[in-house]
Amino acid sequence: MKRLLATVLGVCVAAGAAGEGGDAAGEKPFAELLASVARTSWNQNNAEKARLFQAERDRLGDRFEDELTAFIAGDLERHYWTSAYLSIDDYLHGRRPRLHLALAIMQQGVALAEARPGLNALMRRYSLHVRLVVLCRRLGLDALASAHKGRAEALRAAEATLAGGWPAMSPAMAKLYESTPLLRPAAPDRPGAKKADVRLQDLIDKAPDGSTLKVPAARYVSAKGVVVEGRRGLKIVCEPGTEVLVEDVNAHVLSFQNCSDVRIEGALLRHVKPRKEYACHGAVVRADGCNGLTIAECELNGCGAVGLSAWRCRNVAVTHCCIRENSFTAFYLDHCETVKITANVIADNRSLLAAHTCDDVEMYDNAIRRNGGYWEKRDPALGPEDR
Questions:
Q1: If you placed Cys at 83, which of 18, 105, 265, 299 could pair as Cys (CB 3.0 to 4.6 Å)?
Q2: What SS3 state is found at 288?
Q3: 323 and 345 in contact (C-beta within 8 Å)?
C-alpha cells in the first residue's frame, strides 16, 4: 500500500508503465476486467466484474498494489469501483478486505471528482463521501466519518438531485451511516451542538494520572485554551461530536506541557472565529517538552497557524486524524525525535511540514492533498482544487 498512499491525492505518481505494459506472460493487467467494462459499462453486472478483479488480484500477487496504482491513475470510475471491490463484502468473493487501501483510493477519488465539472462528477463525489462514512466507521475513525457525513449532507442540501446518487448498501451499512454524528464547520450559533455545562479544563484537572477521562459530546468553549500540564498516563477520550473551541485566536486550542504517555482522541479542535491568513495566531495543538503524546481520531480544523506545533518532544504519534486548512502549515516540529504521522487525511493546509533539528520522523499511510508551500506566490484566480 505504500506506493499508493505516498501519492498526493489526485496526482498519481506511479508511472503508467506497469499498467500499460504486460507481465512476463504477455497479459495486460486487468485485461479481462476492462473487456467486461467495454461490453456492459462499470454500472452493470457488478458481481462478475468484482470476480474478475479478485481473480486478477490473486494472479498479480505481490505486484497487485503497484499494478492497481497504475491502472486507476486519473480515472474516477476506476477509483470508485475498485475501492468497492476491496471493501464491500458482496464483492470480495472470499478474499480478505483491504480497508485501508480502499480508504486511500476513495480519498483519491474525491480529489478527482472535486477537480471536474458537471453533475456526474458531483454525483460521484457525493457517493464517495457516503461510502467513506461507512468505511471510516468500520475502521474506527469516527471523527473522520463525521467529517465525511458533513460534506455529504452539505452537497445534498445544495443539490437535491444528488439524492439519486445514494450508493447501494446493506441495511447494516445504512444504519452505520445514519448513526454517525454530523460534523459541520464550527460556529458560535451552529444548531445541534449542545454547549457544555462544565469546563473541559475542570474535567481534565480533576482526572487523576493514569486514568481514562471520558468527555461527553458537547461544545466546550474557553477564552484562552485548554492546558494539560505535567500529567502522566492520562487518556482523554471524547465522544463523537465533541468540539473544543477557543475564542482567542492568539491562544493554542489545546496545549500539552511536560507530559508523558498522554493521549487525546475523538475531538474536533479549532478556534471559534479563525483567521484566514497566517498572522502569528495560536496553533490547534501545541506540545512542549512531552515524552509520549498520541493524538488520534481528531480533527485539527483550519483554525490555527499550525495543526500540531511541537517543541522538544519525543515519541509523538498523530494517527487517523484529519488535519486541514491551517494557515501556515499542518505540522511544525522543532527539536523533536521519534515522531510518527500515520493514516491521516492532511488537506488544504498552506503547507505540509516544517521541521528543525529533528530525528526519526516518519510519515506514511496518509492521504495528502492540496497542501501548498507557504512562501510560494499564489494566483488569487486559482480555486482550491488548483492549488
A1: 105
A2: strand
A3: yes
**Do the beta carbons of residue 300 and residue 284 sit within 8 Å?**
yes
Own/partner pairs, 347-350, CB within 8 angstroms, 24+ separation: 347/9, 347/322, 347/323, 347/371, 348/302, 348/324, 348/384, 348/387, 349/307, 349/323, 349/324, 349/325, 350/278, 350/326, 350/374
Task: Residue count of the chain, please give it.
Answer: 387
Alpha-carbon distance values, 296 to 110, 228, 300, 364 (Å): 23, 16, 11, 15
Confidence (pTM): 0.58
Strand partners, 262: 293
pLDDT tens, residue order, the chain (387 aa): 444 444 333 333 333 333 445 555 567 999 999 999 999 989 888 999 999 999 999 999 999 999 999 999 989 999 999 999 999 999 999 999 998 889 889 988 988 898 888 999 999 999 999 999 999 888 877 767 887 888 888 888 888 888 888 998 889 999 999 998 775 543 333 334 578 889 999 999 999 999 999 999 889 999 889 999 999 999 999 987 788 998 888 899 999 999 999 999 989 898 887 655 545 478 999 999 999 999 998 888 766 689 999 999 999 999 888 888 888 899 999 999 999 998 788 888 889 999 999 999 999 878 787 787 655 554 444 344 333
| Contact present, 253 and 221 (Cβ < 8 Å) | no
Output DSSP code: residue 25.
T
Owner of C-alpha cell 473551541: 245
Determine the number of helices (DSSP H) and then strands (DSSP E) in the chain: 12, 18
> What number of CA atoms fall less than 13 Å from residue 98's CA on the CB side?
19
Domain ranges of the chain: 2-178, 200-376
Cβ(366)–Cβ(341) below 8 Å: yes
